[in-house]
Design goal:
The chain is mainly alpha-helical. It contains 3 helices and 2 strands; from the N terminus they run ααββα. The chain starts with a helix and ends in an 8-residue tail after the last helix.
Length: 69
C-alpha cells in the first residue's frame, strides 16, 4: 500500500470514529458501494452511493454510545 493510500484510510477511520460522515463521504467516490450482503447482522445488504452509505452508517453507529473502529 502506498503512503498516500494508508493516509486516506487513516483519515477515513478517524472521520468514522468522530462520527463525521460528511468528512468520510468526501473521501469516497460518489458511486461507492458498501457490500454487507454476507453479513449475519441486521444491516446486511448492498449500499450504493453516498446517501445509502450515509443512511446505513447512521443507523449502524447511532446505537452505540461510543464507537471506535
Amino acid at each position: 500500500m502506498t503512503r498516500e493510500g494508508a493516509d486516506l484510510i487513516r483519515r477515513g477511520i478517524k472521520a468514522l470514529n468522530d462520527r463525521d460522515l460528511d468528512g468520510l463521504l468526501a473521501l469516497l467516490a460518489p458511486d461507492v458501494e458498501l457490500d454487507w450482503r454476507n453479513s449475519i447482522g441486521p444491516y446486511a445488504g448492498l449500499y450504493r452511493g453516498h446517501e445509502e452509505v450515509r443512511g446505513m452508517l447512521i443507523d449502524y453507529i447511532d446505537v452505540w454510545e461510543e464507537f471506535h473502529w
